[in-house]
Amino acid sequence: MEDNRTGESISIKTACDEHGIDLDSYCRWHDVAICKTCLTSFHEKCSDCIITLKKAAINAKTSTALDGVLTSIDGALEQIQRVIEDCGMVSTNIEEQEKSVQKSVQNIRFTVNKRMDELEEKLLANLSETCNNYKVKNLDSVYYKNKQNE
């Protein structure tokens, strides 16, 4: 017989190794196929766990189907894990971008503040020079008027 999942050949025992009799039952407790002699000799206390081989084969088919479902679930879990990792990377990228933008804003503010300081210094120098010029003109004017009045 060939295993459909792997393509490998598998052999199936039909007779008991110990008694040479056809296997006709299955002990779920010991997970083994048994003959009538094994049932009465070794599995008397397992009566609640004994089923026919036919029923065990149906359960095995169900188990094979379950394996397929489990494989699908494992694949889905791997995809979910990748999505979670991707989300973590996106979150990290967003945090890095936020820090980069904050640094850019700080640099712009530093540049603007430096320029504002330069403009303030220039404006105050112009103001001081203008005031001094007016003072000199006013003093000259007062001096000239005083000279005329004398």
From TrEMBL:
Q: SUPFAM superfamilies from the entry? A: B-box zinc-binding domain
This protein is called B box-type domain-containing protein
